Amino acid sequence: TITGATRGALSVMADGNAVKLSTADGSAWELPTVDVDQWPAHEVAARAAVATIPAEQLGRALRTVLAAVGRTESNAALGGVLIELKEGVVNCVATDGRRMHVAKFEIEQATDDCEILLPANAAALVMGIANKAGDEKVQIDRANNCAVIEIGEPAVAIYAQMLTGKFPKWRGVVEKTEKQITAEPAVVRADRLRDGMKQAAICTSETSLAVACKFAASVVIRSKSAENGKSRVT
Q: Between the N and C ends of the chain, which has fewer C-beta atoms within 10 Å?
């Protein structure tokens, strides 16, 4: 939070049980710390390379799917983002059981088929750094049940414990949906569709997150909830 709110150089100095941070313009913070010896030792096993992915593509894909991550304790796998590599295609998938976001892109690299299930907070961290890395590369490795993600040069390394649990069979849902599409695709201005969805979503709630879209001569977007009423945007 501090680094995001400040500009220029940030000085860091340890002082007993606290760390002091300051900037050249006079801003200063003193934050409590804990003894590093209280943290459990973590030894990473031998790493196996998974793939090298353009940072911009991975960051954009993660940004696309993160909003659909579930917030339930009944299935831990729903609280993460699945990164699947299959036949040269990278699929990023997230679902909360009601909605599902999928983003995919191809890479010019021969890789073994692989699945990595990242916790949502780790995926968000990777997304933020990857989006700033621009045309740099992201190296993804596996070390037992840990994912090691190195971004940029010099590399920023993120070690993330992969989630356990059964991720839904998302591919069957996508294939079934594609078979049900019979109409010609609608072409809509992206900014107007975005604004319409934002306006309609005002009336959604935690229990009613969906907005309904009807594409015809005009686009009609609706939402409703018992708590916040109903909306209609044309």
A: N
- If phi > 0 it is left, if psi is from -120 to 50 it is alpha, else beta; for residue 86 that is beta
Query: Contact, 155 vs 136, CB < 8 A?
Result: no
Q: How far apart are the first and last CA of the chain?
A: 39
Integer Cα distance of 120 and 175 in angstroms: 25
- Per-residue confidence (pLDDT) for residue 24, from 0 to 100: 87
Q: Do 151 and 138 touch, CB atoms closer than 8 A?
A: yes
Residues 6 or more apart whose Cβ sits within 8 Å of residue 185: none
The Cα-based distances of 137 to 39, 52, 92, 103 in angstroms read 31, 6, 17, 18
71-84 tens-digit pLDDT: 766 788 899 999 99
- The span from the CA of 3 to the CA of 21, in Å, is 10
Report yes or no: 123 and 81 within 8 Å, Cβ to Cβ: yes
- The whole-number pLDDT of residue 74 equals 73
If residue 56 lies in a helix (H) or strand (E), which one and from where to where? helix 55-65
Position 216 confidence tier, pLDDT thresholds 50, 70, 90: confident
Q: Which tokens belong to 94?
A: 């997230």
pLDDT at 166: 86
pLDDT at 189: 92
